Amino acid sequence: MVLLALGDDSQCACENGACGTRTPILACRDALRTATAEVRTVVAHDDAEIDAALRALPESRLIVATAADGQLRAVVRRLVRMYAPAPSKRPESLPEDRTLPDLPPIGVLPLGPDATDLATRLGLPRVPADVAAAVLGGRVRRLDLLRNDGGSITLDGALLGGVDAGGSAGTYLARVEVDDAVLADGTEPVLMSVVANAARYATVEGLPLVTSPAMDDGVLDVAVAVPVASRGLFRRPRVEIQVRRAHGRAVAISPRSDVPFVDDGVEGTLNRKRSWWMERGAWAVYVP
Questions:
Q1: Nearest alpha carbon to residue 39 among 56, 19, 17
Q2: pLDDT tens-digit map of 25-41
Q3: For residues 288 and 278, what is the distance between their CA atoms, to the nearest angstrom?
Q4: Who contacts 73 (Cβ-Cβ below 8 Å, separation ≥6)?
Q5: Contact 201, 69 (CB under 8 A)
Q6: Which pick of 1, 30, 68, 230 has the fewest CB atoms within 10 Å?
Q7: 41-65 exposure pattern, b = at least 16 Cβ within 10 A, e = fewer
Q8: How far is residue 89's CA from residue 25's CA, in Å, rounded to a whole number?
Q9: What DSSP designation does 101 have?
Q10: When comparing pLDDT for 156 and 167, which is higher?
Q11: How many secondary structure helices (H) and strands (E) does the chain include?
């Protein structure tokens, strides 16, 4: 069993120190050892150290202790890199709608207090002893993930644009295509757009965007919020927000300028075309 913690030394699972994340990590480790499981605790600070910990798979089961969804995504991203075959070596057994085989399941040990994180939305246990029991029980739930042509993945969702830290809402120009449907043609202002695999960005600032996204339905959901001016005969013009929705296998977003985004809680800037595509049931978590 590999118990992998991500972050700096304050988040480690060593015997010394008194950080807030140390207690649940040690409690999970002790619960596994009480059940006579052999446990190796590893702290990873970068991709190379994550890769070194993952080399024990699939002979050993993996538990990832995460204080944020972005940390869990970092581990799954390295698993994808490790297991995805080159296009020229695609195995015949791989389903037509997949570019990688089934990834080894992961036990998730939440360290943060955030009750809206992915572990909560998936109904995964948060108590260390319950996490240990789920991993030892071996029951698995397979989930969808999104790969993108930037070399990364999305577990939950990505939000482009929206309200900034100062509370201001700007617009941007972008072409948004979902399979054969065009939600924005690049000539009209877009307030925000969402690429969703789950519900993290289903509603933003009270505005419903995607409806009923699910991590096991094999499709991605996309929404584009466009401000539209309406004018009555004797009324001043007013702006309403029109939400256009679609779901499918893949989405391409082509911004005309730099657009801020947040992807699984990780912030960045998009300044070129980015495509996401669905990997149905590609990763998995241990469940009670």
A1: 56
A2: 999 999 999 999 999 99
A3: 26
A4: 152, 153, 154, 155, 264, 266
A5: no
A6: 230
A7: bbbbeeeeebeebbeebeebbbbbb
A8: 39
A9: -
A10: 156
A11: 5, 18
